[in-house]
Structures are given as structure tokens and as C-alpha cells.
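Everyone, describe these C-alpha cells:
***
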Amino acid sequence: MAGMQMKAIPDSNPAAMDQADPQVTVNAPARLRAAAFSVHVFTALGAGMALLALLEAVREHWSSMFGWLGAALVIDGVDGPLARRLNVVRLQPNWSGEVLDLVVDFVTYVFVPAYAIATSGLLLPLAAPLLGVAIAVTGALYFADRRMKSDDNHFRGFPGLWNLVAFYLFLLHLPPALGSIGIAVLIVLTFVPFHVIHPVRVQRLRWLTLTLMALWSVLGLYVLIRDFDVPLSVTIALSAIAAYVVFSDSAIRLLRSFNA
């Protein structure tokens, strides 16, 4: 997921990789090929961040867990531009950046957060393991869906950002019944064809989206430093940003339908 998959969409293009000129790869200087491969290593570090996050989750060190998931999110946002700049697709055609990206994204966006959600104690005891399994299964299916992204760079359905769902679950500390219902609704929305904006790639109102993402990053870091003990105003601001990301496109389409 390059970008905040919040990136569920990889940057690598398998068709382009299949069409890579092997002669160009052979003739490329070793230092360029090594630099290109280092981007794959950098991406793979996200899997290491996921393991460290899981170890913290097992210890119930939730803020530390989110810190490692945040580090993986930064890697996810940087590796795509690096890959394009260093021409990784052409210089390392035998290594699939798309597959690597999906593997890392699944463990950081879905698997580790599913464990945290299921074991947090914030859901109904009987529902928690079932919802955790449902998150893992539907998340895996979503990542395999070739329709997950629209032509205008929106995500189709809830984009498997379970790391952020887990963050908000800890932030809002809802009653277990309400939290369980909310998780169940998001699982269903994974396959509902509404559009969610990609925080980096969607062009419409991009200036506003990027500004809100910068604000979210600052507030999110503050929340982790304070171990989720923050003023109500911070919680409201973070919730409003989440609502903008998830529902703004649907709201705009609804308004346009009224004006048509």
C-alpha cells in the first residue's frame, strides 16, 4: 500500500516488469542494480516492523505497537517514490515489488491489527476472536481484489486499513458492544462499492487532504506519546479527519446527484 495503504495499492506494475528489457538490466552498472535492490530491502523492513509491533502487542504495550506500525506506514509511503526514482522495475525485473508490497501491507495493515483488536479487551469476549478471524479473512480477500482501486485513484470499499481502525478503537474506547458492532460494519463495508479517497493520489481537494494528513500525523504522534490520554478536542479532530477520508467522496457524489 504506497501511501496511507492508510496504502492498500502497490506502485509496482507487473505488466511493466514483464516487459523490462533484460539487456538494459545486464548492462546497468552494479551500483545502480544494488541501489534498486536496496529499495526492495527497504520495503521488506516493513515486515520486520510488523514483527516488532506484534511482540509489543503480545505484551499489551499498545502505544509501542502503534509506534512500530507507524514506522511501517512511513516505509510504505516512501518506498514507492524511491522505486520510481531508482528505476527498480527495470533494474530488478526478477523481484516483484507488487508482491512484496502486498505481503508487507497485509501483515502491517491487517494481520497485526487484527490480533490487537481481538485481544484488546475492547470488544465483546465472544465476538472478539470471531471478528479477528473475519478481519484477517476479508483483509486477505480485499488485497487480492483487482478492483480495489478505481480509475480516479479512490479505494473501492473499506480499504483494509485495520491499523487505523485499531488506533481509533483504542482512542475512542467505546463500550464493547458498540465497538463490536462497529468492527462488524467495517468488515461488511469491505465489499460495498463505495469510494474512499486515497490520501495522496486523489487529485480532487488534494491540498486539503494533504493538510489534514499532516495534522493527523502530528496529533497521532501526540496520542501515542500520551498513551491515548488526550483531551477531547484531540479525539474530535482525529475523528473528523477520519470521517473526511472515509465519507467525503460519497458526500460529494450525493450532493452532485441532488444538483443534477
In short: Residues 1-23 have pLDDT under 50 and may be disordered. The chain has one domain: 14-254. Residues 14-254 form a domain with the Four Helix Bundle (Hemerythrin (Met), subunit A) fold (CATH 1.20.120). The chain has eleven helices and two strands.
